[in-house]
Design a protein that fits this description.
Blueprint: E1 10-13, E2 16-24, E3 31-37, H1 42-62, E4 71-74, H2 82-89, E5 94-97, H3 107-119, H4 129-145, E6 169-174, E7 179-184
Parallel strand pairs: 4-5
Antiparallel strand pairs: 1-2, 2-3, 6-7
Length: 187
């Protein structure tokens, strides 16, 4: 990796990194974006765990057929304090820490970071935290709802209604035209 290149989960602006917290469900490849900040602390990361737990509870109530989250694979960053693990353990989620210096142990998350960088962040100048949050949130929606994934047979993490199979193809710009999403208009 070239010197000065941001590490996992970081975006640069004015020599100040911004950290994002995300969760990726392996079975569906669905990404849940929890938050972003320039100065992550143990308390902030714990709050992101609480928000994730609330989001997952809401989704469980909406879709009873969905399997609950059983495991969380995370790295050994010091910002993941004991209270972070406690919040998730109280929801019945087992924490699995990756080995030291073993990025392949969390390959799905690493691949998502590569995708968001190549398809989105490398093409934009991020101005501030609010801008980063909007950009990554819009990309996450696109990733979950419109981007096909080879690992799940060219399906999207969030199943979508395809509608018609004939008729004109429409183009929807994502992130102000950085990404183009093509679809057929619903009947």
């Amino acid at each position: 990796m070239p010197p000065g290149y941001p590490a996992f989960g970081e975006t640069w602006h004015s020599n100040m990194p911004r950290r994002t917290v995300l969760t990726l469900q392996l079975g569906t490849r669905r990404v849940h974006l929890s938050g972003c900040t320039a100065h992550p602390t143990g308390e902030w990361v714990t709050q992101q765990a609480r928000q994730l737990a609330w989001t997952l509870q809401d989704r469980q109530e909406e879709k009873a057929q969905q399997l609950p989250m059983r495991f969380l694979i995370r790295d050994r960053d010091a910002k993941f304090v004991r209270s972070f693990d406690t919040v998730l353990a109280s929801e019945g989620i087992e924490i699995i820490k990756t080995p030291f210096r073993a990025p392949k142990a969390n390959a799905y998350a690493e691949r998502w970071v590569l995708s968001v960088r190549e398809e989105c962040l490398d093409r934009l100048l991020i101005i501030n935290e609010g801008h980063l949050r909007r950009v990554v949130s819009e990309y996450t929606d696109y990733y979950n709802e419109a981007r096909p994934h080879q690992g799940i047979n060219q399906r999207c993490p969030t199943p979508i209604n395809r509608g018609r199979r004939d008729g004109p193809v429409e183009c929807r710009d994502v992130l102000s035209g950085i990404i183009h999403d093509y679809h057929r208009e619903a009947a």
